[in-house]
Amino acid sequence: MYASGNNFVIDPKNGDTCQGDSARFATDGGWNKTLLLKNITLDRYTIDTEGDIDASRLWANTFLTNSTITTANIEGKIRVEIVAQGGTNTINTINNTASRLHLKGGDNKLNITTLNQATTGLSQIFKNVNVEHFNLYAGKSYQRGGKVETLNLLGGEYHLGATDSTAVAEEAGTIGNLVLADGTFKQYKGEIGSITLTSDKKQASFTTKNTFTSGNEQPSYNGLITKIDKQVSGAHTIELGDNKANGTITATLTNGSLTLDNTTGDITNNGELASLEVSKKSNGTRGSEGIVISNAATASIGTLSTATKSTTINNAGTIDKLELKESSKVTNTGIIKSLDVQNGDSTINTLNGVGQGTAGNVEPHTLSNINITKDAKLTVDTLSVGLKGNQAIERVTINNDTSTQGTNKEFAVNKIQVTYLDGNFDPAKSISKNLTDYVTSGSHSYVDGASKPTFESSPELQGIGVKFNPDGTPIFEVEASVAASMTSVVVRQSMRRKMLIDTYLAEQNRRSLKNKERRTKQRIEAATLGDARAQYQKDLAKYKLDLAKWDKLASTKENKALIAKYEQEDKAYQKALEQYNKDKKAYEDNRKNLETIAKAKKLKAPIEPKAPVRPNLKPSDKHYKKAMADFTKAQKAYEKAMSNYEQELRIYNEENSKLETIARANNLKAPIAPKAPIRPNLKPNHKDYKRVMAAYESNQRAYQTALKRYELEKKSYEEKRKNLEVLAKTNKFNANLKAPTEPKAPVRPNLKPNHKDYKKAMSKYEQERKDYLKAFKQYEQDKKSYEREYQKLIALADAQSNKLKAPIQPKAPTKPKILASKPEMPQEPKLGEISAELLAKHKVQGDFFIRAYGGTGSHKATNGAQTSSWSVGTLFGSTWDLALGQTSGNIGFYGGYEYIYNGYKQAHIDAQGHTGFLGLRFSHIFAKTKLAGFYYMADVNGGYTDISVGQDMNGMRFGANVGNINFGSSIRLGSSIYMAGAKSMLFPSIGVGVEGGYLGDFEMRTQRSGELRYGGLSQGYAVTYAQANLNYYQEYGKRISTTLGGGFRYLMNADIGITPTLNGKAYTIEETTGRAAAVHLAPFFYQGTFVINYHTDKAGNFSAGYVAVGGLLGITHNASMRWHYFF
Hints:
Layout: E1 2-4, E2 7-10, E3 18-27, E4 33-38, E5 40-49, E6 55-65, E7 68-74, E8 78-86, E9 88-96, E10 100-104, E11 109-117, E12 122-125, E13 129-136, E14 140-143, E15 147-160, E16 174-187, E17 191-197, E18 203-206, E19 210-213, E20 219-223, E21 225-230, E22 236-240, E23 258-260, E24 267-269, E25 272-278, E26 292-295, E27 300-306, E28 311-315, E29 318-324, E30 328-332, E31 335-341, E32 345-350, E33 368-372, E34 377-388, E35 391-392, E36 396-398, E37 411-420, E38 454-457, H1 459-462, E39 466-468, E40 474-476, H2 482-554, H3 557-600, H4 624-656, H5 664-667, H6 689-731, H7 758-799, H8 817-820, H9 836-842, E41 846-860, E42 866-884, E43 887-904, E44 909-928, E45 932-953, E46 956-978, E47 984-999, E48 1002-1004, E49 1014-1016, E50 1019-1036, E51 1040-1051, E52 1055-1057, E53 1060-1062, E54 1065-1066, E55 1078-1080, E56 1084-1095, E57 1101-1111, E58 1114-1126
Parallel strand pairs: 2-4, 3-5, 4-6, 5-7, 6-8, 7-9, 8-10, 9-11, 10-12, 11-13, 12-14, 13-15, 14-15, 15-16, 16-17, 16-18, 17-23, 22-24, 24-26, 25-27, 26-28, 27-29, 28-30, 29-31, 30-32, 31-33, 32-34, 33-36, 34-37, 37-38
Antiparallel strand pairs: 1-2, 18-21, 19-20, 21-22, 34-35, 39-40, 41-42, 41-58, 42-43, 43-44, 44-45, 45-46, 46-47, 47-50, 48-49, 49-53, 50-51, 51-56, 52-55, 53-54, 56-57, 57-58
Helix pairs in contact: 3-7
């Protein structure tokens, strides 16, 4: 043994071999180490760590060259890699409890007889490693190549064809026999020879193709096992995957390659099996239930043979030959090319697809050829048959009609379903009712004489009204005919469409009337305030930036203190200002009294002239120059008048100061007693005691001085108060005396006699002049009385010694520099008075809209069957504003297109309709108050629907085209109730209407001659209704608004007459009741609405909404998007 770098080598040299009892390769940590064994034979080899240290970060590797080890123990927290570096190397037993173990063959082989893994470590097997027996108890193992002859999965996880990151491995790997007992098995790549399940195995999953081989190395299952599950009962369910791309299985699953030690497991085939034989075995824990064999829709079995009693066979795919050697229950929805009932009593749901040859060209009533051994029995639950005219078509032949050895017990049927009728069928005549009528003559000896099947028709025939009583008596139920269904669909969908469109149009009309004034105002604002608003947005952006800078500057400690002080002073100022305003009001009241006195003494206050208003015109307006010249002239006159006014005002004030008034009593105020300062509650040792006490003593001295002044003012106030009260009482002065107002003479209208309003204006003027003369006479009388009273007032005023003094306005505190520098928010420009010219130029004339909608619904047909529908459509229109005197309204048109699909899945009937429609609508707001507006709406409309109806039946397509002309009209009376101004409104309405049309005749037929024909004759119809609606409108800011509402429509006549046809014969009477043939519509419809609107300034308005339209027999859910533009 010698060292080579960081490695250690045991090599006898010279090509000799070395043999020993045992060797130990241990690490004490530090660094990775490798031991090379060349030409060495050992009984026992151990790899571990010193003192149980944690060396799980390190590798202790062993490289083998032509070496043999009897037992290798890999132990401890360490990572180990054993590599066959050269020649052939063998290890009889490996006991792995290390953290990680890698087994690599490289370009040479490493043979291991037994590999045991019993702890939670990890192992990986690479290419050129052959393990005869691998017992996995715990942990994880990844096979990235090589071969494991027998894998006993007793716990842990085994990953075939995967790396330790669960990626697909570089090599496939092979397992000869997989024994599943416990744990988890997953396959990503590679091959498996065979699988053995033990009774304790719960689950395994596979993700790629598995190859199973029998003893002679021929593949017995070359496909994919997708899943193996252990059921609660103890049985295992095996699902076989689709293997069509990889070839067909050539052997059965019962040849031992796939071994199931619990014999009652269910089998599901998803691939291709050449044959599957279920032998006669004990039923085990499943008792009398037997096993379940399922063949998937995409799967196939060449020969399926079962000898287990109570076997259940579910076939959705293809079975070439089905052999029932014991009693079985068969459910077939696929194809069984050959059925051989050899023993026991078996049942099958139907013979459709059984013994009828190739699928695709087979109709349900085609002859089935089956084999039944004497004394065996087959019971068919439902036998599909056909009729030529009213006579049976032979449906079943037994044993190719070559044997007459039946005992009249072998073949029975529970129910006969008539699926095919031709063009000669007459529901008024009887049909073949015996089971033997539907079995070929050579097979009558096998028919069970006690079998008395009941009759019914197929869903397709029931969907067109053809039915059979249980005893086989035919019935044509006209109310369930295709004519009834078509009429019901056409009228119901027409009512749905009209109610849906009416909902959309009512909402559109409300938006048109509501938003036209708003849109007009927006256009005027855009035209007149566009530049100002653009500048405002710039100023606002700048203000926000400046304010952010100012906020940062104002947040300093010094500026915060200055701002706080100013705010305190400003609060006191605001309080003083409030008191000043009160005093000023009292003063002004007294001034009015003095002005009245001055008037009695012929002293008149001068009147301040009014400044002229600058014209609101643009330089481009035609009257701009003239208006500006007039304005300049008026401005000069105003300035001269102001100079005279100021001189007269000075003289007036000097004279008025000499006057005294009794109103002084109202302005005489009691002095306010000063408040004594509060002595501070501080101890002498407080740090602020001296400063606070000095301030208190100063305040105390000021208080004493103010208190003396208050006592003097109070005494003077009481004396003046008494003198004024005596004076007022003695002179009986009326303080509320007011000068009478001279009435204004009416202005004669400046109209020519030929003006249309001349007479009306002159009549009004004459009446106003009479009223003026009467008022002027009364004014002269009041004026004399007023002057007598004020002579007394003059004397009273002269006697007073107190002077009227104006209150002194408080001085506002000085703003600190920081507040003075605060940026001011710009004012948003607002629209002023709107001229008639401006209004006429920008007024909304009308609007245009387009709406796309779609919906889906479900309904009950006239025979109670469930149908479904979906539709898409477009609605567009335009309205024009109408000026109706003092009221308003609009008139408009609308049109659109709708595609609708109706499906009656049970009867394989579908109808597709293309509808075009046009309408005219008028609305008028005939009255309006502050609380509500009242309106009515009238509507007329018409349209045409082209309907393509088809039905798939017995491999044929029946079809027809139906045309429907429809019309309608309605009138509605409603109100707009303003709940919160114009932001929240309620819209109740009631109305009546009619919906009608003309449905053309049609006949459903196929291209093949002699087949069934059915349809209906043409007919007109009309349905009248009454309706009520309630909608609630709410605005959220300037952009968003919503509408929530609903309505109810009651049909006053819900029955429509029909005339169905069958094979050329028309039916006007319901045979079972004797009543006239008719369709009964749902008696009412209802709708619920929710719409959300978004308003833009220039791009129009957008909305999205949901409308549910329903009735007694169904409901439709509709969604829509709308664009609305005013012009």
